[in-house]
Every structure is written in C-alpha cells, then in structure tokens.
Amino acid sequence: MAMYFIPVNYKDTIAEISKYFLNKNAISENNAIEITPIQWSSMGFHGYPVEKITKRYPFIVEKDGKYWFNEEELNIYYRKQKRKLTYFILIMILIGVLGITLPFLFA
Hints:
This protein is mainly α. The chain has a domain at 10-77. It is built from four helices and two strands, in the order H-H-H-E-E-H. It has a two-stranded antiparallel sheet with strand order 1-2. Strand 1 (60-63) and strand 2 (66-69) form a beta hairpin. The longest helix has 35 residues, at 71-105.
C-alpha cells in the first residue's frame, strides 16, 4: 500500500503550481518543461504519483514527459469548482429547510 501526501488546501497548491510554471515560462506546449520528483515536491506534491497529478489538476498538461500550465483549463477548472460549491450550498439549504419543515408537517 503506497502512502502519499495529498494537498489539503487546493487554492494554495494551485498558487504554488502556477507560480512554478510561470517562473519557468512553461505556459505553452512550445515551452514545456520536464519536472523531477523533487520539483513536484516543491509544488506541494510530496510522494504524490505523477500520473494522478494531471488527472486531478487538468490545467497541468503533459505530453511526451514534458509539462506546461494551461490557463484556459484553469478557468474551466475554477468554474467547475464554483459550480460544485454552489450545488453543495443549495443542497445543504434544501436539507436544512426540509429538516425544519418536515417535523411540523407530521406533528
């Protein structure tokens, strides 16, 4: 069983990822860079399997062992995260309303 560190605060992790790629000017396929495990650790992925990083963070694009940061994918990622949070809040409000009103209906 493999153990690895999963970053908890995704916004801090995204900030570290974007800072790293911007410092290396790896924001397009033409400027793609190779990344060692130590460099992944500097971004907050301590022992995290590299193949799972691009699945979890689709704005890190990999091709032929080289990586770059895709800003358009980051915008899509943030929109999806915002949508998920909105749905979660709405469901919690619905559960709260049902939890308050149902006992009065069946009393």
